Amino acid sequence: MTSARGHLVLVVGPSVAGKDTLIDFARAQLQSDPDFHFARRVITVVHHSDFDSLEVAG
């Protein structure tokens, strides 16, 4: 196995700050570039029909 070097970009911010809009734009602009990969997003709070949700036991 070889080790790949690169960068990890995290988009963080409060609810409704535009994170999904920014990520969707970047995904559309970079879709043909094999050097960019986008992780599947998992929401860890209230269930929303557009996203996968994950219940966290406390």
Give an overview of the whole structure.
This protein is α+β, with helices and mostly antiparallel strands and 58 residues long. It has a domain at 19-53. Helices cover 21% and strands 7% of the residues. It is built from 1 helix and 2 strands. A two-stranded parallel ribbon has the order 1-2. The longest helix has 12 residues, at 19-30. The protein starts with 18 loop residues before the first helix and ends in a 5-residue tail after the last strand. The model has no long low-confidence stretch (mean pLDDT 79).
Strand content: 5-15%
Q: Radius of gyration, Cα only, in angstroms?
A: 14 Å
| Biggest sheet: strand arrangement | 1-2
Structural category is alpha+beta
Largest sheet, if any? Answer: 2 strands, parallel
Give the number of DSSP strands: 2
Helix content: 10-25%
**Head-to-tail CA distance between termini:** 37 Å
**What characteristic shape results from the CA principal axes?**
extended
Order of helices and strands: HEE
Oligomer designation: single chain
The parts where pLDDT drops under 50 for at least 5 residues are: none
Number of helices: 1
Mean of pLDDT: 79
Protein name: Phosphonate metabolism protein/1,5-bisphosphokinase (PRPP-forming) PhnN
Q: Short summary of the structure?
A:
This protein is an alpha+beta fold. It is built from one helix and two strands; from the N terminus they run H-E-E. The chain is extended.
List keywords for this structure.
58 residues; alpha+beta; two-stranded parallel sheet; extended
Fold blueprint:
Elements: H1 19-30, E1 42-43, E2 52-53
